[in-house]
Amino acid sequence: MGETKTDTGPATWRIVLAALLDFFTAVFVLGFLVASVTGGRTEGGFQLNGLPAFVLFALIVAYFVVFNRYLGGTIWKRILKAQR
Questions:
Q1: What is the spatial distance between Cα 7 and Cα 81, in angstroms, rounded to a whole number?
Q2: Among 12, 19, 46, 72, which is 20 to 30 Å from 80 by CA?
Q3: Domain ranges in the chain?
């Protein structure tokens, strides 16, 4: 009998770590960009309220949708090789 090789995919810890790192990266990078445009930068970072905060949330969702659907995976999924 021949051996069959099963492709189990990436480890669960890689997928979870990539998702967390992607989320934090998106929040900080996109948050800084939105704050720079809308004047929400502070000495300690940024603070967003109202419409700029809503824009940030929309951009975070768009980041995950666009990268996963059209670009083959998010930044950290590619770095950690956590693509299914």
A1: 14
A2: 46
A3: 31-83
